[in-house]
Amino acid sequence: MLGLIMLALFVVCALFAPIITPYDAVEQNIDGLLIPPSWLANGSISHLFGTDALGRDLFTRIIYGCRITLGSAFITVVLAMLVGVSLGTFAGMLRGVRSSIVNHLLDALMAIPTLLIAIIIVAILGTGLVNSMWAITLALIPQFVHHTRSFVRAEMKKEYIVASKLDGASRWQLFAHSILPNMTEMLVVQGTLALSIAVIDISALGFLNLGAQSPLPELGVILADGLDVAYLAPWNVAVPGMAIFFMVLSINIVGDGLRSALRKRVSH
């Protein structure tokens, strides 16, 4: 329940960022540089999380950062899922040499961390938020292909699939009417895991100056911008770092809860 509440809070921040935030996310204020957060003795309630080295309101940037980071991660996961499920279903229905080739290719890709694949792709495409999203999408596709392929191969051996094939059902009919309805639970679980990976990778690429670029308020970029003044204003590093941590934690908790619920449902 706690993880769901945390994730819901991040989703609300992402959806209603323009309404929640009191300032412009990129507006600089030379009269308000490095103002401490409101809970410190010399802080200001007008800047809840303080300001950065350019006088930008950190609370506003964090809220918009949740919008950009979580929104970008969601889009990449949806795209990767659409492509990965399509390829995985096709691969799961293959037999013989073609199936063996797909197996070896997937094993090789699954052995490489998604962030490393994304960095290589960004090095080819160039920096920027959009390119980093494409890179992470391509990096996540093999995972969806692998899980979908394994699921489809297991389903194809079951009696109800064999009965449908004997009745003359085509591959498309088998997928649409028999396999896909049973695949939904697996996709929900794998989607939450991929979402946490996408959040980390987007933030990491932004932090490494390979993804989103300053002054765009992406959580990884905000964290990187705060490093230069971390010794003077540690909240510039602590706040975006904690935002990333709790965002990933909430997604993982929800994912674990979904897995447990689905496992109990299957056992009953």
UniProtKB/TrEMBL annotation:
InterPro entries: BP-dependent_transpt_permease (IPR050366), MetI-like (IPR000515), MetI-like_sf (IPR035906), OppC_N (IPR025966)
Any one GO CC term of the record: plasma membrane
Main location: membrane
Keyword field: Cell inner membrane, Cell membrane, Membrane, Transmembrane, Transmembrane helix, Transport
Recorded topology in the membrane: Multi-pass membrane protein
Domain of life: Bacteria
Annotated ABC transmembrane type-1 domain residues: 66-255
Signal peptide (UniProt feature, chain positions): none
Annotated TM spans: 68-93, 105-126, 187-212, 232-255
Location relative to the cell: Cell inner membrane; Cell membrane
PROSITE patterns with a match to the protein in the record: ABC_TM1
Coiled-coil segments: none
Gene Ontology BP, a term: transmembrane transport
Family, similarity comment: Belongs to the binding-protein-dependent transport system permease family. OppBC subfamily.
Name of the protein described by the UniProt record: N-terminal TM domain of oligopeptide transport permease C family protein
Native species: Alteromonas macleodii (Pseudoalteromonas macleodii)
